[in-house]
Amino acid sequence: MSSTNRNHRNQRNNPYVLDGLAVAFHRTAAGIAWRWRTELAILAAITAAVWRLSLLITLPWAGVVVGLVLIVVGVLPWTRRRFWCLLARHRIQRLCYEARLHTRSGRLPLVLWARPTKVGERLHVLCRAGICSEDFQAHIGELRAACYAREARVTRNPRWSHLVTIDIIRHDTLAAGNTVRSPLTAKVIPLPVRTDDGAA
Does the model's pTM come out above 0.90? Predict the structure, then answer.
């Protein structure tokens, strides 16, 4: 592969590889709490529910009731879609660490929000100074592999260039197994039958 075809933004082609050894990552309590905010909120809700139920019934029965509720909630489609959003968020954060998509001071991009879509998940990422959407574009292959996805797309906000949207594509709604019906076939209007004498 010639040097002209190599993407200089990909860290495999970084001429300053040893420079990353001196990076000291910033792991503050606020940053850790932000990255694990969903898990902390769920843990707090479960703890509060068990404590409240233990005042009404015994503690073992409170654990059984909360456990059954969690099982029922866990099989709902909405919960599964939210689980994939949570997984994609953590996998992108891990990718930023492993692929060195961070600033020289060791600050990772901030995943602001993740929501499910019809084909997968959409994540909104805040790039810190020193990172841009082109850096994510250079790691599309690593991005889709990290999220166990069919495809990944990176879009820069047209107004604020430090805001990046990452679409994780897991399902192909136009795949061969899915039939797209035409709205014209919904109503079939019978045509008049002509007789031999030409009358309808």
Answer: no
